[in-house]
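Consortium newsletter contribution from the modelling node. Members have asked for a concrete example of what our holo predictions look like. Here is one, prepared for the 5-O-phosphono-beta-D-ribofuranosylamine complex that several groups have been discussing at recent meetings.
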Amino acid sequence: MPKHMADKKAKVVVLISGRGSNMMSLVEAARARDYPAEIVSVISNRPDAAGVPWAAAQSIATEVIDHKAFKSREAFEAELETALVASGAEIVALAGFMRLMTPGFVARWQTRMINIHPSLLPNFKGLHTHEQALAAGVKIAGCTVHYVRAEMDAGPIIAQAAVPVLSGDTAATLAARVLAAEHRLYPSALRLVALGRTRIVDEKVILSEDVNDSLPLFSPRV
Ligand code: GRF
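And here is the predicted structure:
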């Protein structure tokens, strides 16, 4: 579904489970008149997610679909699917959404559901990703926006951002540095998807236009 700036904005539903700072960065970016997507709804699977009242205060439709109220993953996803269709979702953006999706649900949204993970995938999947990076002793960390697949933190990579790991880093200081990068990366990756500039070929993303310079990131700096 290629889109151009002149077309109407792509309708995006953001799924969260907690704090929602990445959702907030998408909402803030989408305020720009020329941003090609609008956040039509924020859905949380946890009633206590801090992002929900924040989104409601921005006059965005919010919904809590508590997974604990459903007997099975499929039943939860059926309710989620109903909410997504009702909101006219064209793109689903997971932002700290802590539920694995079944293969059936993933297949339905195969080319329309994206996620952000705070590591340079395919390294350091799952929880405690910053602890994993520190334990591995890498000098460069980062974050990844990717299409969602049934396997956790897998799927065609749309965009990545890298940050240095510094000698005194703890998981908390590294997480903060990566999170700042996430808040810039996710809006720019969603923009590419909303504009139809991403094509999945052999489970890899081809961008219609590469916008990179050739500067490498050195850590430590040379
Ligand atoms: C982010 O680091 C995101 O990459 C990961 O979980 C965290 C969620 O943070 N999937 P927030 O809820 O967006 O503030």
